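FW: tagging you since you asked about this chain on Friday. Here's the raw sequence from the shared folder, copied in full. Didn't touch anything.
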Amino acid sequence: MRFSKFAALSLFSSVLMMFPSCTKRNVVESITEDELFTISYGNFEEQMNIFSLNEIGNIQTGLFMQDGFFYIVNGESQKVMELNSYGNLLTLYYNEDSHTKELIDSFGNEELSVHKEISYPFGYTGQLAVDSEKCMYIVCTIPRDRQELSPDGTTLYSQTILRVPRDGSQIDYIGQQGPGGTPFPYIRNIFTNEKNEFVAVCSVNDGMMVYWFGNDGFLKSMISVNAEDAPRVSGIDEDSSVFLTVENVIPDFNEYKLYVKIDNYSSYSDKASKAQAGISYINTLLYPLDISSGVYGNPVSVPPYEESVTVDYSRLVYKIPYDFLGVTKSGWKFFVISTTTGFDVEMINSENQKVLHRHFEVNKSNVLFHNMSLSSDGIISALYADENNARVVWYRTDKLIDN
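HL: got it, structure written out here
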């Protein structure tokens, strides 16, 4: 997705302003958000600090929901908040050398929540996962003097995973080999499964590297997923060539396999000059990858997001691939895309060939930063930050897939 989607969305937004009529090809039913609570900005323990909303790309804050409990990692304050669905702060985890620690010591706020100090001087990136025993796995950036460069100079090993048990005892960090191991390359995302194993998906120079760990924290498998080894589709005609991007990789919740989302594109050449004339999106395929055998299974086609633009008597249809959001324990695959009026969500069950579409209405003019999370039950939670505070909402998409 790296090059195409953001460029396509920018181009599409420009087209919307230029042309007089724009309509979706199909009407998608909306699902109402349930606002659960708000979080004010500030440095105190029950507040969230994101420094400057003008620096959207640098915000290190993320959300995770498990069994009705919300975990917000706030990298700017070097802390993690555990809250219930009413927004009450239950547990606060924070670096012992952070500003949060200084404030707690100064104002004596120990009675407001359970406090857990973390002694590792890592920077939080805003990514975390929580297993069924409420053990947290927090993606961190290690100090610069401990980062390593690969022998060929193409990969920086700069991140690690902080493992925090429910009671806050025996906190340690996980590297490539397990506890205390060497740093990871850039961690794109982290997941847990029904066995309380955890999986780190990393971006590397030629694609993605997936590290699958047992619940003891030691490495079980390391899988390389790249465009060179991925399945390919043939060209649409003799003047085109097909190339693909591995947009995302997400593990299955129950089985020992991965789901690899591949976006296929076609590059066209001018017959006279032989120069590249353009790039067209072809399709998106989701492949299961068996980790034991290393064999890709039969793919599922993921229908793209479509928007039509009418100019005079001509009608143009723009197709844009969705982002791969996650997989539920019942096997539903969730995909999401940002639109001019909110978000469109596509839910696919490859076992019974069912596809559901829903729209989340969101006033984008007020949202300066957002982060979404999919629970194993199929509930989408979101953190929307505006100029005044941050809202935590959820969408009960679990009821749709249950029915």
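FW: Helices lie at 4-18, 99-107, 397-402.
HL: agreed, and The radius of gyration is 22 Å.
FW: great, closing this out.
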